[in-house]
## 1
Amino acid sequence: MEPAKAPNAMRQLSPEKTAAILDGAMRVFLEQGYAGTTMDRIAAESGVSKPTVYSHFRDKEGLFNTLIEQLVQKKQWAKCSQDLLQPSEESPEVVLRQLANDFLDNCINNPEQITFIRLIIGESGRFPELGRAFVQHMDKPMLEALTHYLATCPNLNVPDPAVLARTFMGTLIYFIINHEMLHGSDIVPMERDRLVEHLISLIMALHSGANFEREQAKG
């Protein structure tokens, strides 16, 4: 186990050195896996000394968590979450369709990101903290924002926004895993636009059904 610096020994690196370390760490993690990666190797790949790496990142887990946070910001998933919390005059169909397409674009158009997520899933059995970090930084903010939107949108009336948020995201994630990560698009083909449009239609049908039941109860 490599010794970690004490918290009071940490100092802020320049943005250039921080970026170099994160870029180098990403390359090493993708090549060696989490278990096979060492801080020595990250330092060498980044072109900095090991003390420099430890001056900003306490250990390998902290560095990996920072990579996940950077991935969220870089792919604008955090922005998607914040946008969902803002009042909008757009119809739910437009908002949810845009969200679905942005999410799929952010994943599918970045092979490095797909490989990184595959790494997290593959290593989470031995290192549960990696899976938990992924859920904490990537899944949880999006699910919370989407649940809030579904619960408060004046043009929607759904019985269980939290379940619907998970159904929405789960459908998109399954598509990415099946078509991109497991290379199964030719085995169980599905057009992306067809999937998204049907998903939106199901949500709007659920909204219409809830309104119908409410009106029936009043009558």
Note: The mean pLDDT is 85.
## 2
Amino acid sequence: MALDAVAVFCGSRFGVDPRWSELAERAGRAIARRGATVVYGGGHVGLMGAVADAALEAGGQVVGVIPRQLDDRELAHHGLTELHVVDDMHQRKALMAERADAFLTLPGGVGTLEEITEQWTWAQLGIHAKPGAFVDTAYWAPMRELVDRMVESGFVTGGEPSIPLFGDDVEVLLDQLAARAGGATFDPEDLV
């Protein structure tokens, strides 16, 4: 299946390693070159802004979803194809999930981690059948170890398609996400 839209979760800061900015730009360009839309948190700062700008520069479509509180702090990117200002983080994640076929997670902080783990939970519960992946195995090594521990401990069934992928090559991960993407529909009312 071709991916029509990929949600990207990542830091609103650049972090200490310049490779992460390059990775964000690579991800934005790769998604745009495939003709897919980038769906992301709507900010113009940090890795989030780098993903959006790279996708736009590559001729891609970018949909931002930002909570009103962050828009009020002038963090929104106003050069996007679409910018949705929502009331809170719950609406942000629901709209991102509705618009995306898959989730790509770059380095980031606790918000990034919370966003991808919630999508993994929704996939595990059957709310949607949209796959996720973590990019940068060095950065996400502790998360991969935790996922392995969950499987080994019997809290997650090994081989479940909802278990996120891990890798370093954005193009390969996008191919793997496309192969895993199901046609499951998503209804935000399922979350109420």
Note: The chain has a mean pLDDT of 93.
